[in-house]
Amino acid sequence: MRKRIVILGAGTGGTLVANRLRRLHPEDSAEIVVIDQDDEHVYQPGLLFLPFGPAEAGDLVRSRHGRLRRGVEFRQAPIDRVETGAQRVVLGDGRTVGYDVLVIATGAVLLPEETEGLTGPGWGEKVCTFYDLQGALALRAALARFAGGRLVVAVVDMPIKCPVAPLEFAFLADWHLRRRGLRERVELTYVTPLDAAFTRPVAAGALAGLLADKGVGLVTEFGTAAVDGPGGRLVSYDEREVGFDLAVVVPAHGGAAYVGRSPGLGDELNFVPVDRHTLQAAAAPDVFALGDAAGVPTSKAGSVAHFEGAAVVENVTRVLAGRPPAARFDGHANCFVETGHGKALLLDFNYDTEPLPGRYPWAAAGLPLLKQSRLNHLGKRAFPWLYWHALLPGRDLPGIGADMPVHGKKGR
């Protein structure tokens, strides 16, 4: 009997899983339906560059349904809730869509309204974010007006999408201001709720060293409770203050709102608890989640959705056949970290191994890990082509497996 696979979300994870499943399952054996509230797929890593000029907004957005293989049905509709007991999705207009297996890939949403004052006076002018398209464009204009003073890059709370992106922004701001001849007139500060520049010790040390080399101040364990735009102040829960003339803020994140309306599906932040290896939801054995929507202890990054996709596709196939999930995701993540001046470094890690020096993906001739290089920068700049033409279509990348390679890493 023909089965129905429903995928919620046509971002990175939902698109690549739909395309891989379509390739694996003939249309007469499985119907694949992808549901999203809009038809605009934003290449989110490109938002980092938009305020500095190298990217254009039109280059970052493409049709969601245009990224899906023939034979995948796309429905544009808001989602009201998931009823796991009835195996159905309830849409915003009350229609329902039943499923045999459900994949949740609706990502994370920004919650700026959760921080007192963040969206008040000054929002979009002297308090900006680059974590969505509208915000990145507003920040481009604010940076163009900025002639000197205190520039603060602040992370309000964790978890966030792409945890290295705020650090990259600080590095690129240093480079950008030097090009404009303004660096000597700017006090640049990075503010984080973490106790270090990054979550993993070896990488945290390397990234903190880079901040120091570039003259970027580091303020740690600063939980931002309020933003005073007119007064130019960030205020922490323990009543410390950081002053600014321009603040680049990464708001708190949560999962999609419909997750909170779905009985038993999400946690307190509307992320979906899953087995961290099989990615099977705690709520029901026929539900899986990947990408930013999934509550797993690794970075919320596009590379993670890519690597998770292999396990989700295999486990969805097994559940459709009446077998238990067996494919395992190891927490693999890798991230290019743009450091300015035409260089970048690369992090590669998983649940058990922190980012270490070495080479990736090949020990003899791979990209250098935890080390600035021109080669890593070129890799990051070339990635958009791979994203649109290989990763989203669900094609295998030569030499890039889902599991973290152990060879080539020093210190294991």
Automatic annotation (TrEMBL):
Domain FAD/NAD(P)-binding: 4-144
InterPro entries, A to Z: FAD/NAD-bd_sf, FAD/NAD-binding_dom, SQRD
Gene3D superfamilies for the chain: FAD/NAD(P)-binding domain
Pfam families: Pyr_redox_2 (PF07992)
The protein's name in its UniProt record: NAD(P)/FAD-dependent oxidoreductase
